[in-house]
Amino acid sequence: MPQKNKYELSIIIPVYNEESYLNKLFKQILYFFNSEDVEVIIVNDGSTDRSKEIIENFKIKENIKFSLKIIHLDKNFGKGKAVREGINNSTGQYVILQDADLELDLKDAKELSNIIKSNEEIKCIFGSRYSSGKLKKHSYFSNELIGKINSFIFNIFFGQSLSDIHCGLKILHRDVVENIKLSINDFGLEIDLASQIVRNNFYIYEFGVSYYSRTRVEGKKITWIDGVKSYYYLFKVRFLDNPISIKISLIYSCIYMIYVGSYFGMGLGKTLFMIAFFIIGLVIGLKNKLLSSSFIFLSIYIGSLFGKGQGKVLAVLIFFILGLYLAKKISKFINNKIPNLDYLI
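Predicted structure:
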C-alpha cells in the first residue's frame, strides 16, 4: 500500500535578496495557508542582504500552524537549484512553486490548490500571466515579448498550447514530482520543468493569475542574458535531452538533410536551403528512428533524380512527402510484427 504523504500541501519558495518583500510575503502565507496540513519550505539561495536574518526570525512568529522548513544554501546557485532543494525536502501530496518577490499573488496560489484538490484528474496547473481578467502590471515590453515567443516555440517543439511557460506560480501533484529530474540551476528551470512534465505524459492545465511586475530598481533579477539562454534551453530540452537512439537519429537525419539541401540554389541561397533542410532534419529525427528515416532519405534521393531546376525541387518535395507517408506505414507494420525493434524504427 502506498505511503500517505505527511502533509497535504508543500509550498516551496526560493529566495535571493528579497529583504524588502519577505515580511509581507510571510503575512500572506499566514493569511491563506495557516493550516496544520501545510508545510512551507523557504530556500535561501545564498542571499547577501538581510534575507537570511528575516527568514530566521519567522521561526519565532506566533500563531503559526503550518510546518516551517528553512534551507540556507552557502552561495547563490540559481532559482532552479533552490527549487530542486525544496522539492527534495518536500513531503506534501501537492507542491506549490511560489516566487518570493510578490509579483504573483498568494491568493491565486490558494485558488490553484483548491482547484487541484477538488479534481483527481488534474495533476498539474501552471499559472498564466497572459490570460484571465485579473489585474496585471507589465513593466517591460521585452520581457513579455520573449516570454510569449518562448511559449510559442515550446508549443511547436512539444505539441502543446500553453500561453505562459515562464510563470513562477505552479502546483504539481506528487505523481508529477516523482517523475521529474530537474537539472538546470537558473531561470531555465521553467523550461526544464515544463518539458519533463510533457515527456512524462501529464497534461498541463492553465489558470489565469494576477501579475505585478517589478522594475530593476525594485529588485527584478531576470535580464536579457536569461532571455538569450532560454533559447539554448529550449533547444536542449527538445533535441539534446533524449535517449541515445533518438540522438543518433537526429544526427543521421540532419546530416542527410543538409546533404539534400546542398543540391539546391547557389551562394547564399544554397546556404539558406541547407539551414532549412537542417531544421527539417531535426523534426524528422525526433519522429523517426534510423530505419524509417532511411526510407525518407531514399525517397528524397529518388526524387532528386527527376527533372532539372524547379522541376527537381518539385520532384524532391513530392517524393519527400511520399517518403514520410511510407515511413509511417512501414514503421507501424514492423512495430506490430517485431516490437523489439522500436529503437530502430
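Summary: The chain has a mean pLDDT of 87.
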